[in-house]
Fold this sequence. Notes:
Number of helices: 5
Low-confidence stretches: none
Order of helices and strands: EHHEEEEHHH
Shape: globular
Oligomer: single chain
Number of strands: 5
Largest sheet: 5 strands, mixed
Distance between the termini: 9 Å
Amino acid sequence: MSGFVSEENILLNxxxxxxxxxxxxxxxxxxxxxxADDAEGVYSSFLYREEIDKTxxxxxFAVPHCKTNAVKSATIIIFKNAWPVEWPSLDDKPVDIVxxxxxxxxxxxxxxxxxLSKAAMLLMDxxxxxxxxxxxxxxxxxxxxxxxxxx
Length: 151
């Protein structure tokens, strides 16, 4: 998956006040990136998934994911907020870094599971989490994510 994520997929210094605002920004970015053709469809899919179970992990990270025909090609968007926002999480703490997975419906059982597994593994890696939290260089973060997805 080398080159899977470009620096345009890294949204730094965001100003969301709520989980919904963060997901809306990610949905709009997906259309701007050309990986989706309907921001509302992406956003609705994120909200649907959030109703099923929490996507907040631990230590301020979340991995929301959507599967919808509005997504044309699978991708990951990193969203770094300027401050933590309320987000149901495994440690009941707010979230400031989001690794959003966007998957076309047609790849729901394959790409989705592979990306979800890789994302979970990356967020168990203290070095990766430190890099994600400590860097505000979009190219550096895209490279780290691509390297992690390829291993």
